[in-house]
Amino acid sequence: MTADQELAVEALTRGIVNKIMHTPISTLKTAARDPESTTVIDLVRRLFNLHHEDREKETAASRAVSTSVSKSVSKSASTSARGPGDED
């Protein structure tokens, strides 16, 4: 392909992508301003598989908090099970 042909293909491709993505991008921008429009945002996340990463991060954070709380509760329970004069 010549340089002029490459530029023409690139311009055509960019135009097609812009035309296809105009409505979804506009809808997302509008939805982002409205706190009650989580349905649109959730749908886009599902369509583009964006929720998977977020869910993994949330799950990892949730596990870390859960583990920390469990250790704290276990330590507290073992401390309260001993008598007042007992030491480690």
Task: Summarize the structure in words.
There is one protein chain. The chain starts with a helix and ends in a 7-residue tail after the last helix. It has a domain at about 20-55. It contains three helices and no strands. The longest helix has about 30 residues, at about 5-35. It has helices spanning about 5-35, 40-45, 50-80. It is elongated. The protein has about 90 residues and is mainly alpha-helical.
Strand composition percent:
under 5%
Gyration radius, in Å? 27 Å
- pLDDT average, as an integer? 74
* Helix/strand/pairing category: mainly alpha
Query: In sequence order, what are the helices and strands, one letter per element?
Result: HHH
The largest β sheet comes out as:
none
- Low-pLDDT segments, ≥5 res: none
Number of helical regions = 3
N-end to C-end Cα span: 79 Å
Please estimate the helix content: over 70%
Gross geometry: elongated
For the secondary structure, the number of strands is: 0
